[in-house]
Amino acid sequence: MTDDLFRRRSLLGFPLALYSAAHFWVDFSCALLIFGTLSGDPSFPLCALLYNFCAFALQMPLGLLADRLDRNGLLAASGCILAAAAYLLPWPEALAVTAGTGNALFHLGGGIDVLNGGGQRAAALGIFVSPGAAGLFLGGLLGKSVSPPLWMGPAGLLVLAAAIARLLYRPSGNAVPSLCGAKGVLVPLFLVVALRSYMGMNQSFPWKNALWAPILTLALALGKAAGGFVMDRLGSRRTADWSLGAAAVLYLGAALPLPGTAAVFFFNMTMPLTLWAAARALPGAKGFAFGLLTFGLFLGFLPSWLGWANPLSQPWACAAASLASLALLRCGPREEPC
Fold it and tell me: Cα dihedral angle (271, 8, 12, 28), rounded to 10 degrees?
């Protein structure tokens, strides 16, 4: 859809602000629930797998449904309600599945709407995706405390669901559902996302402690937000070159906190770039494109969950992963229309 429709449905960009705030709260609430109720439970490893599968892998088939329904706001609101309902479930596995599915529905509804409204630009997408990391960090931190106030999660989710449904209930203006497009470009984008997820799960820093953990999370979130603005200014190829090239150099000094934090910032600047490029490759199936890349997030999570050896313990390995991502993106995003 065009920028004009998104502006007509907005009040000074209010839908983007609402979706971004909801992204923070959905991820915060899901992390609060999972860690606040299941930490130390024997079922926690299985529930972590179920939650991540539903939150990320399930977005691919649900994305096809979202493209056809053309009610992105209601889909996002339904996701908030489902995540809130998970707080009422006494069975750990059902709780994890329900929260993960709600998370997936929200991300699809909000993500497709932002992609539609952004037109040829990626700045709005960067703003939308960036709060999630902060929400996960704070929700997990609070959930691991002695007595987390669990009521906060569903209360905020229901308020946000009402606001989204009230303001964005109309048909969303999705393109006619179609899987025709430059599918070859999706393979390198998928691999980049899987590698980024693997990096996020496995990169380790000797200086990461209670002081630097929130700073590192902030750098990650700001990197995602900045990536959209930089891409609109420089284009996808130059953004990938500069951000991942800088990340590779800085990762070599990641034994120290400042270069390590800067490396995380630059490495995550490609987050909105990959989503934007996937949506351009499949303009008639943005939900499916979004879900395909989040399936890569799930695959990046699996090695850590399985307990496989971590090859990213050395700075040069993280630098090599940055250069591998750059090589893949060189095969992927295009500046010209699909």
Answer: -40
Distance CA 7, CA 217 (A): 31
- The identity of residue 220, as a single letter, is L
Q: Tens digit of pLDDT per residue, the chain (338 long)?
A: 444 444 444 434 778 999 999 999 999 999 999 998 888 788 999 999 999 999 999 999 999 999 888 889 999 999 999 999 999 999 999 999 999 999 999 999 999 999 888 777 889 999 999 999 999 999 999 988 867 788 889 999 999 999 999 888 776 677 666 666 666 788 999 999 999 999 988 888 889 888 899 999 999 999 999 999 999 999 989 999 999 999 999 999 999 999 999 999 999 999 999 999 998 888 888 899 999 999 999 999 999 899 888 888 788 999 999 999 999 998 865 544 33
C-alpha span between 307 and 298 (Å, rounded): 15
Crossing angle of helices 92-118 and 72-85, in 10° steps, is: 160
Secondary structure of 52-69 as H, E, C letters: HHHHHHCHHHHHHHHHHH
Q: Which two tokens stand for residue 157?
A: 């989710």
Site of tokens 């900045």:
226
- The whole-angstrom separation of Cα 35 and Cα 218 is 21
Determine how many CB atoms are found less than 10 A away from the CB of residue 308.
10
pTM of the model: 0.90
Rounded to the nearest 5 percent, the helix, strand and coil shares of the chain are: 75, 0, 25
Nearest residue to 152 via CA among 135, 164, 134: 135
Cα(109)–Cα(101) distance, rounded to whole angstroms? 12
SS3 (DSSP) at 282: coil
